[in-house]
Amino acid sequence: MGDTVNNEGAQKKNFFKGLKSEFVKIVWPDKETVTKQTIAVMSAAIALGLIIGILDLIIKFGLSFIL
Fold first, then answer.
1. What is the predicted pLDDT for the residue at 66?
2. For 4, how many CA atoms within 13 A lie in the half-sphere containing its CB?
3. Which residues contact 40 (CB under 8 A, 6 or more apart)?
4. How far apart are CA 15 and CA 19, in angstroms?
5. What pLDDT is stored for residue 53 in this prediction?
6. pTM for the complete prediction?
7. Coil, strand or helix: which one is 29?
8. DSSP code of 3?
């Protein structure tokens, strides 16, 4: 039958070499950008939570009024 060659060692080396080269390409945001984006996300989450809460109260009041 045919002989098989075990390439696992070479594949692992190539994988980690490629992984390292991709990590070099990453551009991490600075502290100011992270702070601004965090504030934007938290503001949007709080606003959406308030909107959902108000809608829930309105629907609850409307259903109790009808029933």
1. 85
2. 3
3. none
4. 6
5. 98
6. 0.61
7. coil
8. -
